Amino acid sequence: MAFTDRDGTLNPDFHYLRDPDRIEILPGVTRGISLLREHGYAVVCVTNQSGIARGIYTHETVRAIHDEIQRRLARGGTKIDAFYYCPHQPSDSCDCRKPKPGMFLQAAREMGLEFAGGAILGDRALDVAVGRELGLVTCHIPERGRETSARAELDAERLVPDIVAESYLGAVTRLLYRG
Ligand SMILES: [Mg+2]
Ligand SMILES: [Zn+2]
Q1: Which is the most buried residue in 128, 145, 149, 176, by most CB within 10 A?
Q2: Over the chain (179 residues), what is each successive 10-residue block's mean pLDDT?
Q3: CA 51 to centroid of ligand 1, rounded, Å
Q4: Residue 147 neighbours by CB under 8 Å, 6+ apart
């Protein structure tokens, strides 16, 4: 299974995005997801959405955004197999907010899939951290314009991703054809 982050990875990270009409799919994402699925990966989106706990938006907002992402991917002939989101904020001390592995464990259990041979694609150190903990191939795709802060965040936690790429498609290609 291939886990994928949402904000900053599938779409630009507009903080606390509320409006599905503002969703844009980043370059290379549709083709990358399509390639992953052609190669037998289930593609599972795992995303922290603390805007719910903070009262900025609702579960319905998050679901509407995920529906819109699916509509846009469908135009390119592909889709996300499942979405999991954490609605909590750090002070809730839940088990699902990344870098905790709760969403990943739940997805594997509910979908009957194994982590072995799996991967995570994301723009932040917490994506790399949870992937490392679960034995996934870690693919880091810093958001354009935020490469320096993304690198600093990794260095601070002494995290070295297996793959670093400039685009989603670049990461997928290297994941699928790595030696
Ligand atoms: Mg992100
Ligand atoms: Zn949570």
Answers
A1: 128
A2: 97 86 94 98 97 96 96 98 98 97 98 96 98 98 94 96 97 92
A3: 14
A4: none
